[in-house]
């Protein structure tokens, strides 16, 4: 290794400058010159580059450079550079790769021993992967490595336990850390408060908030936001509003998340007008609504049939100089489409493009759905083509809307072509797409093809499993073809899959048994058997529907 020379600091400044701008080509030209002039490389140079690789989302480049430090640059590596690379990999979400890198360095021939930060990072990666028991093992090994767990190690592990619904164990860790002389911070309590909120245990959550106060930890905006969010999810909006007042009274400043959560809660309860009033009162206090708040309110007002109020809010937002985002534009477009005002919605789309705001898949799918709904399939298909021309990649919702519209319009052949195109692009059909195709096939008399798609659905993920609507479509089609015995088999399969029949199912069978069989049957005995079977399986709601 060379000794420090006059002028080395100039090179170090150049490295810092190029690293800040992520100019790797020029940066490595500096490295090459330093090597040719036998300049001294210090670890700080590499840490700056690792951070730059992190900002540029190039974790593998960081690992590669770390491996070259000793042999190529004669620079000694310590736990500081190791942690820097490990953090880059974890920040990129490559948790398995982080574990591999950790094992390679710590378990290899390097002289690097992990410190508290190393352990914290690896515990975080394990928790993110759901390897909480393994994370606990690593946590317990820390004292043997002369590393006492700090508040961040405890918080990370508590968070992992809460996400695995092991909140009682997380609470025990809170007690343990205090016994060990590690004092909790607000973030520690916030992790547990969030856990109890998700669990629905308000009593334990309240007790924890009180404990937090007794331990001298200040309730910050995260504490209040967590509880307000939970109250909004439970529909307790008045309590959430009351807590907001207490938050302000305690000199804790509400942020965009606080107001956004409360306004979104009001919208979900069908109280969008109250949400607009809250927004107005906030603006009087100097706060400004963001795109998320405006989109929620515009969408909510339209869904409540208050289109004039929605348009008024839109105009007010524009007058205040708030630049609409793609989310707000999409909410307005969707609302106008729901009202059947397709021409106005198309104008908004044009305005959006002219102002340099690129429409997304949701914007297009709202308009396509609207045109199909008003019987203008030609304009819907034209929009689909325009979407591709503007390089907007359709998602599963767009495909579902198009397939459903084509099937409703009797264009089964075109729908099948779109279905094939969707599968060819690796997009998994959702429930709506499956139901639309099965309905279209059954209406065209191709019940067997419909059943084939249904069997495919059974092999999909839980969110794409057949629902009662899917079963009813097939049951009606089978009964129409006098396949009542096959329909009964399908009902048995329906029950086995955990899907309860509804009134439509009942009516399909009552009419089919009385009209399709000779001699006719009233079907009451069959329905009684279904009710008994549901009752025996503790499916009381399903039995009550029949």
Task: Give me a quick take on this structure.
The chain has 546 residues and is an all-alpha fold. Helices cover 72% and strands 0% of the residues.
How much of the sequence lies in strands comes to under 5%
Number of distinct helices: 31
Q: From the alpha carbons, calculate the radius of gyration and give it in angstroms.
A: 31 Å
Biggest beta-sheet profile: none
Decide which structural class fits the backbone. mainly alpha
Which residue ranges are poorly predicted, with pLDDT under 50 across at least 5 consecutive positions? none
Q: Indicate the percent of residues in helices.
A: over 70%
Number of DSSP strand runs: 0
Shape: globular
In whole angstroms, the N-to-C terminal distance is 84 Å
The mean pLDDT is 89
Please give a structural write-up:
The chain is mostly helical and 546 residues long. It is built from 31 helices and no strands. The chain has helices at residues 8-20, 24-36, 43-55, 59-73, 79-91, 95-106, 116-128, 132-141, 151-163, 167-179, 186-199, 202-214, 221-233, 237-249, 256-268, 272-284, 291-303, 307-319, 326-338, 342-354, 361-373, 377-389, 396-408, 412-424, 431-443, 447-458, 468-480, 484-496, 503-515, 524-536, 540-545. Helix 5 packs antiparallel against helix 6 (95-106), helix 11 runs parallel beside helix 13 and helix 17 packs parallel to helix 19.
């Amino acid at each position: 290794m060379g000794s420090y020379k006059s002028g080395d600091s100039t090179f170090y400044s150049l490295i810092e400058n190029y690293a800040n701008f992520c100019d790797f080509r020029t940066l490595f030209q500096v490295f090459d010159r330093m090597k040719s002039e036998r300049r001294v490389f210090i670890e700080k140079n590499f840490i700056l580059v690792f951070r730059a690789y992190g900002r540029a989302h190039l974790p593998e480049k960081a690992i590669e450079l770390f491996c070259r430090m000793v042999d190529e640059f004669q620079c000694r590596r310590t736990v500081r550079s190791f942690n820097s690379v490990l953090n880059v990999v974890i920040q990129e979400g490559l948790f398995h790769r982080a574990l591999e890198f950790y094992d390679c360095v710590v378990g290899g021939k390097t002289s690097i021993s992990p410190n508290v930060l190393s352990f914290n990072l690896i515990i975080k990666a394990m928790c993110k992967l759901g390897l909480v028991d393994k994370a606990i093992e690593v946590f317990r090994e820390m004292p043997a490595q002369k590393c006492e767990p700090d508040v961040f190690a405890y918080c990370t592990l508590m968070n992992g336990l809460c996400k695995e619904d092991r909140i009682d164990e997380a609470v025990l860790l809170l007690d343990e850390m205090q016994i060990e002389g590690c004092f909790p911070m607000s973030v520690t309590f916030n992790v547990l408060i969030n856990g109890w909120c998700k669990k629905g245990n308000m009593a334990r959550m309240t007790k924890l908030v009180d404990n937090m106060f007794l331990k001298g930890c200040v309730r910050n905006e995260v504490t209040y936001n967590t509880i307000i969010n939970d109250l909004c999810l439970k529909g307790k909006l008045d309590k959430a509003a009351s807590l907001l007042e207490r938050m302000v009274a305690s000199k804790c400043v509400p942020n965009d998340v606080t107001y956004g959560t409360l306004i979104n809660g009001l919208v979900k309860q069908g109280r969008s007008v109250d949400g607009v009033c809250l927004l107005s009162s906030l603006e009087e206090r100097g706060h400004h609504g963001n795109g998320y708040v405006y989109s929620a309110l515009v969408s909510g007002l339209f869904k409540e049939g208050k289109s004039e109020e929605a348009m008024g809010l839109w105009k007010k937002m524009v007058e205040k100089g708030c630049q609409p985002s793609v989310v707000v534009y999409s909410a307005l477009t969707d609302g106008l489409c729901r009202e059947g005002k397709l021409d106005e919605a198309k104008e908004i789309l044009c305005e959006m493009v002219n102002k340099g705001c690129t429409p997304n898949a949701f914007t297009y799918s709202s308009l396509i759905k609207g045109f199909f709904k008003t019987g203008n399939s030609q304009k819907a298909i034209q929009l689909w083509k325009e979407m591709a021309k503007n390089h907007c990649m359709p998602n599963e919702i767009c495909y579902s809307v198009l397939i459903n519209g084509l099937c409703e319009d009797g264009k089964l052949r075109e729908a099948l072509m779109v279905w094939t195109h969707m599968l060819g692009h690796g997009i998994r059909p959702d429930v709506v797409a499956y139901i639309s195709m099965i309905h279209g096939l059954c209406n065209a008399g191709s019940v067997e093809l419909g059943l084939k798609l249904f069997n495919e659905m059974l092999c999909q993920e839980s969110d794409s499993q057949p629902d009662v609507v899917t079963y009813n479509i097939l049951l009606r089609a089978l009964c129409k073809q006098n396949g009542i015995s096959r329909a009964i088999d399908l009902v048995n399969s329906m029950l086995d899959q955990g899907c309860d029949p509804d009134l439509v199912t009942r009516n399909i069978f009552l009419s089919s048994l009385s009209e399709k069989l000779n001699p006719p049957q009233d079907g009451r005995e069959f329905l009684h058997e279904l009710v008994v079977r549901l009752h025996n399986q503790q499916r009381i709601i399903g039995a009550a529907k029949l």
